[in-house]
What does this fold into?
Amino acid sequence: MRADAQRNRARLIEAAREVFREQGYDASLDEVAKRAGVGAGTLYRHFPSRDVLMDAIMQSWVDRVNDAADKVLVHEGEPRDLLLSWFETYVGLISMHKGGPAKITSAMGDQKSPIVTKCQTLTAATQRVVDRLEAEHALREHIEAVQMCRLVGGVAAVADNANLDQTAVRPLLEVIADGMLA
Amino acid sequence: MRADAQRNRARLIEAAREVFREQGYDASLDEVAKRAGVGAGTLYRHFPSRDVLMDAIMQSWVDRVNDAADKVLVHEGEPRDLLLSWFETYVGLISMHKGGPAKITSAMGDQKSPIVTKCQTLTAATQRVVDRLEAEHALREHIEAVQMCRLVGGVAAVADNANLDQTAVRPLLEVIADGMLA
DNA sequence: AGACTATACGGAGACAGTCTCCGTTTGGCA
DNA sequence: TGCCAAACGGAGACTGTCTCCGTATAGTCT
It folds into this structure.
């Protein structure tokens, strides 16, 4: 890739990160281009769709997910606490941008989605939590990581849309946790 | 209201019902106006926003919700079956249009939303189910109807977005039910 | 260094959807 | 029948998406 192309790509990602944080997932893409100091054509050449751009933004986020899972898994204690702690972490991780939870959760399980890799990162991390709990025989049978992601993602999507705060989300997560624990 | 205004209002609702069913909640409003055979101005005078129009469409739906609750409550049997049966009914009721579940669920609890009345209808119906289960001491404590609506609505929203079918939704609802039952 | 060309850029503009404004029409009343 | 408040319609302003193509230039070759 030519040096100028590489520079513009980086600028676009940086600008998009800013704009999406400020205005949510629906922000104007032309605004992103303007903020990056490039033409609209350049943006669309690098990122043919909003989703592809989204995916690029989230590169660094993958590491964050894995670190978060590490941190949660170190914690010793009741299975219920572990599970809830992962749920809250999960909600935090997918709620970086307005509209993010819905976007991510609806892509969950869709192999053709432009953000598959991100979903896989999330399910893999969740799977680690599931494995740990299953080793302790703390989970009911037939609980799959994808289902967990969908349920918790659904809560996050609702919370995001309705601007619920953490205190309102907590009891919802508790219900899900209790529904999954043995 | 003048006779022509009344007629146009009815036509608009009819057209919107059609168009939304065909194209989902994001369908063009100008298309709705065209289909109704009126100008865009007329549409926006009657229904200043998409939500207000949505609300009008759902008038008949209110009766349907109450009927559905009646029907579910007659059913004798295990509390778990009752609850699951209401959940499935609920999902069906809010999934009439694409994008509907998210729209409705995110308005849940927002007193200023244009579709408050619809949300109230839903929570009231859900409350009846909660009351019944509480009378049988089948529910955990501190379970509120709004929470139930949010959780089930979250699942419905995800299912709607990801085009999940009923067999994929069922286990999610089971988890919620199990998390709420004593 | 200078020339060449594949690669990348920019932004005008086509297109689509939302919503408003205002000149025109009409229902219903006196 | 005449009046006018109420309602209509649709042109067009505005915003966002995305494409096309003339222009610029990074990297290479001599």
Observations:
- The mean pLDDT of chain B is 92.
- Residues 1-2, 4-5, 8, 33, 38-42, 45 of chain B lie near DNA strand D (CB under 10 Å from a C1').
- The CA atoms of residues 14 and 36 of chain B lie 8 Å apart.
- The interface with chain A takes residues 102, 105-110, 140, 142-143, 147, 150-151, 153-155, 157-158, 161-162, 164, 171-172, 174-180 of chain B (CB under 8 Å).
